[in-house]
């Protein structure tokens, strides 16, 4: 647990600082920090020990990425998001520079043109590839930190599906009509089309034929 001392001799608790590592924040400048540790042995708490820092100095103004990761299900069509935790080191938090790259097996990453936000929607081209999220922190004063990146596992295709099925052409005797639809889910294989005819008098449906379309 980390505590910060204000102008008085009293220390105030940092409720969110409970790990081994703590990065001093802007409000900690010129304050003294105190860290406490309570050892636990076989379920029994031992006496608490502590250490006190010297007064916190202002940062360099150059931001640092503390942690970076990518969240979301790696399936075609889904949206994934890159997250970066930044220590601004005295600078004013600004908008960082984000980019996405695609890396196929045994090849170098390639920049995805136009993918410059924290969010990215997976496409057909991403299947069987890894996605790389690159992030460079930038303060409002213009100071840039070192770029950091995170990489995903391989993207999988979505289950095959089709929508917007309709018929093209005039339904007139002697004409040729065509069935079309929008396919989604990996690279399309030999999709199967079936034609049926409904008797307007009886309401019965008759199977005409079926055929596969190769892609």
Automatic annotation (TrEMBL):
One annotated Gene Ontology cellular component of this protein: plasma membrane
Protein name: Outer arm dynein light chain 1 protein
Domain AIR9-like A9: 65-151, 161-203
Species, as recorded: Actinidia rufa
InterPro entries, per database record: AIR9-like_A9 (IPR056284)
